[in-house]
Predict the structure.
Amino acid sequence: MKREVPIIITFLTGFLCVIAFFIPHPPLGDLQQRFLVWYAIVYGFTMVLGLDSLLKYNVKKITQRKEGWQYSYVLLFGLALVLVTGFQSWLKYGTPFELRSSFMYCYIHIIVPLQATMFALLAFFISSAAYRAFRARTFEATLLLVAAAIVMLGRVPIGKMIWSEIPVVSDWLLNIPQLAAKRGIQIGVYLGGVVMSLRIILGIERTYLT
Amino acid sequence: MRILDRLAHIDRRLIFLTIGLAVAIPIIMKLKMPIRISSEVRSAYETIEDLPEGSVVLASIDYDATSAPELTPMFRSFLRQCFRKKLKVVYTGHIAIGLPLAQFDLDMIATECGAVYGVDYINLGYRPGYTAVMIGIGREIRDFFAVDYRGVPVDSFPMMEGIHNYGDIALIVDFAHGLAAEYWIQYVVSRFGVRMFACVTGVMAPTLYPYLQAGQITGIIGGLQGAAEYEVLVGQPESAAFGMPAQSIAHLFILAFIVFGNIGYFISRRKK
């Protein structure tokens, strides 16, 4: 029963959602909407699961003094700070998103700059990686290199200043060869998606139960 | 030969420094470059221009601070265009950490354009569920958003009167740094037939070209270049347009480094 019940639930909800796509009228449409609301609720609870997992992992790391355990203190402190300020702001203003709230202070002055800094570092690493790895070793690699160079120049104003036709060639690369390859890959991926969905709905694919 | 050898083994700290300066100097010197308007950005701009006054536009914020330099200028220009055209903006999103970021822009541009909360725009906030929420709005928006981001019932706002599902929404504009734009197209545009265009980061833009060519979306505003073009079209060039010289010069330096690396590679191969 431990395996059969989830398979039956998956079959019924999956089958109903497929039918409701073609016949959205009551009662199928109403039932589908109810399932979607339930899905949203379950989705919300997965965040609690994530929180539990994050806490357990970092507490274990500290107690076992694993490499980098000191950073787990920073993470736990950050987690507690956001939780405390979030609840405090909620109680005080009725919402944590009030601009004067302590939660928004943490958001603006800690979370946003940290996220932006982490992502900004990518520019430096990409430059260094491109210098080291982007080599014209084969004919295909040379094609990729030339196409990348044209698109990189075509997507910025300086490309047109160098040669007025660079943006035109860049647009052609994006609209014709790139699109042809992309479309082929996407059709393959989505056909695979349809097959996988059917296998799950029909109970043939059961790896999600393990 | 020794110089060429050295070019092939540039210290990565020197690359970091060069890129840092290539970005910083044009910004400090406030360099300007002419912006060429592409057809996909013009098409996105005209989609909003063609909407009649009072039409409802759903803006989905599916990015956070990591992509704000590219997407914030697009969002600001979008709001300016909507509020000048007297369109109603419904604001929601699927990245919880990104919504408050765009909320600043919303409040700032609304004040600038004289738009009133609850009359000209509304912030529905975040709900978990992602694609389930996207599909669910197709039947009744209140099933997921009974209250706005402050917990006030949406029915207490005059602009929400008559807005129930995608049938009441003239256009969806997604601001995304991930797969959200594709989900909007696959789950909403193809199923409910709503018009949509996407504002995405430079790396995500090529993914959406098949949908643009197939006519499933009306335009793409991609990366800082797209944001700069949109700013020019809306008539208020700001951070994106001013950032383009920095990006141009950074691209030139990256290409120069790639050329140096390849010169070194061919020299070392010949030696072997």
Q: What stands out?
A: Chain A touches chain B through 59 residues (CB under 8 Å). The two ends of chain A are 14 Å apart (CA to CA).
